[in-house]
Amino acid sequence: MFCYIKYAEWDEVQQVEFFSKATSVISKFSNIKCTIPENKILLVNPNCYIKILIDYVAEQVKFDFDCASLDFCNENGELLKVNDMKPCDYAINVMHAQKTYIVVKCFRNEEGIIKSIEPLLFKYSKEYTDVLPRLKKYMSSRKHLERKKKGIDDLGRAGRTVGVRKDHLKTIFLEVLQ
User: Fold this and answer.
1) What pTM did the predictor assign?
2) Which Pfam families does the UniProt entry name for this protein (predicted)?
């Protein structure tokens, strides 16, 4: 039993970003062409503790936990939220055999809520351009659901949202008047 993990090493991604900015300036004046390295694939056994899997992948990726946390998403852009799991939970509960998962950097706010995510892939690769819009769509739908749970409408106002039943309209109107 195994699954695939697609990734790019943390320091290589930063170097490619630096060189791509530099070559874009230089390429205006010359015919320099830059080749982008390919993403790597890691074969892992998900039949282990999630903490062991995260630590192993972080070591392979050379991930720096100071600025962000590490998570995984499937090819549809759905986040696995492995950081919400207990360290002794098995990875096989969220990762399925022979499926491909992508390493994701998660930036969290002070409350621990994910504020932004980015796939840890080379920015100009096909995988990156495929999964980034899916991740953004997943995050925006998730934020919308969280706002709906809190009772905040799309304009940022607190209170009841639009999908209220007709029999409750009278009580809501009376609550507002009081």
Assistant:
1) 0.71
2) Il2rg (PF15874)
